[in-house]
Design brief:
This protein is an alpha+beta fold. The protein is built from 11 helices and 4 strands. The chain is elongated and about 70 Å long.
Length: 213
């Protein structure tokens, strides 16, 4: 499953935010004022602070992650490195158990996925890595550094912590949230699962079918 390491965050982020927030009003602001500014939806002040993570996840999740355009990415290259393992989702273990397939058989796919095996064989036979990469399954594990300002992370979290999000991506978002909450609790130590404020009418998690919001 995905792993997350916080590798950089704006030092003294609260002092920076206090300075930024004091400019419109020409006077110093307190921590409580910053909290009120954020709660009121004026998130532009959060763009002054940044956090960077080293992430490992599947290529499938990477495809979703890059849809968040205000984040910046530097990813493992399929031309300059070799991919060697797959991520197996919990849903596959549940499916296998339901059909009487031993866990060991599913585990064997981590290193012996048929497409991953073909990819490795082609490289050993001399095929260029960039061409062999066409064999890679979406479940193959990749790594990247992803950076975003606090506003980008603030807007990313409710979308990917949502119960409707793909389980692997939800786990990734949960780990990012926990790291941010530890490093910048004034901003991120909050519940981003605001089902009561969600406007997605097709969702059945936060309200009963037919309820108006």
């Amino acid at each position: 499953m995905p792993t997350v390491e916080l590798i950089s965050i704006t030092p003294n982020h609260m002092e920076l935010l206090k300075t930024a927030c004091s400019q419109p009003y020409g006077k110093d602001v307190a921590k409580k004022s910053i909290e009120k500014i954020i709660e009121s939806g004026h998130l532009s002040v959060l763009e002054h602070c940044y956090a960077s993570f080293l992430v490992k996840c599947s290529i499938r999740v990477l495809g979703q992650l890059t849809r968040h355009r205000h984040l910046s990415f530097t990813c493992k290259s399929a031309r300059g490195s070799v991919f060697d393992t797959c991520i197996i989702p919990d849903g596959m273990y549940d499916f296998a158990k339901k059909h009487g397939v031993p866990k060991e058989v599913v585990d064997s796919m981590i290193d012996e996925h048929p497409m991953l095996h073909a990819y490795k064989e082609c490289i050993m036979d001399g095929l260029a890595e960039q061409d062999a990469a066409y064999f890679l399954p979406q479940g193959v594990e990749t790594s990247l550094v992803v950076t975003g300002n606090f506003r980008a992370w603030f807007e990313y979290l409710p979308k990917r912590l949502c119960k409707r999000a793909m389980p692997e991506h939800r786990e990734l978002a949960d780990k990012i949230h926990k790291e941010l909450a530890k490093a910048a609790p004034e901003i991120f130590d909050r519940n981003f699962m605001g089902c009561s404020d969600c406007k997605e009418q097709s969702c059945s998690f936060g309200h009963k079918k037919g309820d108006k919001k």
